[in-house]
């Protein structure tokens, strides 16, 4: 095998590895972008509300969704009570 041919093969392999790395970085950037994360959170929230309120949702999904909503309401109430208490002491 000639030295020129071997260099060409190594250069091709390096370019292919670089292209793979670039594609991976772009996928990760898209996955972790704030816009994508917000869209995912919105979709999960909409699904949660649907499962909690829809009679057509599976019983286990409905039960889990209602527990999550009750827990979120409890946390929200605790945070608001804490803020009101802290502002009332001033």
How much helicity do the residues have? over 70%
> How many strand units?
0
First-to-last CA distance: 83 Å
Q: How confident overall, as mean pLDDT? A: 92
Description:
The chain is mostly helical. The chain has a domain at 48-90. The chain contains 3 helices and no strands. The longest helix is centred in the last third of the chain and has 30 residues, at 59-88. The chain is elongated and about 80 Å long.
Q: Could you give a short description of this structure?
A:
With 90 residues, the protein is mostly helical. Helix content is 88%, strand content 0%.
Question: What distinguishing features does this structure have?
Answer:
88% helix; single chain; 90 residues; mainly alpha
Helix and strand layout, with pairings?
Layout: H1 3-31, H2 34-53, H3 59-88
């Amino acid at each position: 095998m000639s030295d020129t041919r071997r260099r060409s093969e190594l250069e091709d392999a390096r370019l292919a590895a670089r292209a793979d790395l670039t594609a991976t970085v772009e996928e990760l950037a898209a996955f972790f972008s704030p816009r994508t994360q917000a869209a995912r959170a919105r979709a999960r929230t909409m699904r949660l509300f649907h499962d909690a309120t829809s009679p057509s949702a599976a019983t286990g999904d409905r039960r889990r969704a209602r527990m999550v909503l009750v827990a979120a309401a409890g946390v929200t109430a605790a945070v608001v009570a804490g803020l009101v208490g802290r502002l009332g002491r001033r």
